[in-house]
Amino acid sequence: MTEFLMPSLGADMEDGTLVEQLVSPGDPVHRGDIIAAVETQKGAIEIEVFEDGFLDKWLVPLGTKVAVGTPIALIRGSDAPDAPQPSDPTPPAAPPELPDTPDPVVPPAPPGEPVPTPAPPPAPPPEMTTGARQRISPAARRRAAQTGFDLATVGTAGIISLDDIPDAKADTAPEPLSAMRQAISAAMTRSKREIPHYYLSDSIDLTHAEDFIAAHNADLPPEDRLALGVLYVRAVALAARKFPDFNGFFEEDHFSPSAAVHLGMAINLRSGGLVAPALHDATEGDLPALMARLKDLVARVRQGRFRARELSDPTITLTSLGDRGVAGITGVIFPPQVAIIGIGTPNLQPAVIAGGVQPRRMAQITLAADHRVSDGHNGAKFLRAIIKHLQNPEQL
Amino acid sequence: MTDDPIYALLAEHLRRVAPEIPIDDIDRSADLRDEFDIDSMDFMTLITGLGKALSLPMPEADYDQMRSFDDLLGYLRSHTA
Question: ipTM of this complex > 0.85?
Answer without folding.
Answer: yes
